[in-house]
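Per reviewer request, we include the raw input and output of the structure prediction for the construct analysed in the revised manuscript.
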Amino acid sequence: MADEPGKLTRRELIARGVRGAGLLCAAGGLGALVTRGQAENLVWQIDPKKCIACGKCATECVLNPSAVKCVHEHEICGYCELCFGYYVDQRLDDQETAENRRCPTDAIRRAPVEDPYYQYIIEEDKCIGCALCVEGCQQFGNGSLIMQVRHDRCLNCNQCAIASACPADAFRRVPASDPYLLRLKKQGNA
């Protein structure tokens, strides 16, 4: 082969091609790692503004009991004497007795704060995620009881069974660094 200035030999051309292919593979691998790292930093959560308290969180989760629990957003709670998240709206004899409570597992505890106000505390180990309390609070209260995926329990499945069954499309992926969606909380991507 003639050594013409500026002209590549076959050997130089192949060497450059191999180096270019190696760089492309390295860049692709790095991109895959970055993408995988971003996907691992997302978790499932329920948007309380979309949740319709249908009860599917209790039955569709791969865990039993569900990883979805009722959460009390105290900042907007009215601390009512008669809470419809705690009591059913049609009470027998209009009494505030145990048979008139909404929660089927007795997961909501009521504690007096100051007459006539009460604080309602969710005992998550008893909560099955049925959302009956959330439904009552949404219908007759201020919506301070909300459903949230508890990340100490959630398996973070790629195809969340609850998200697939949610009729309100309230499930979405959120950053793991900011994993809870509250009514009062500002969301950057809401």
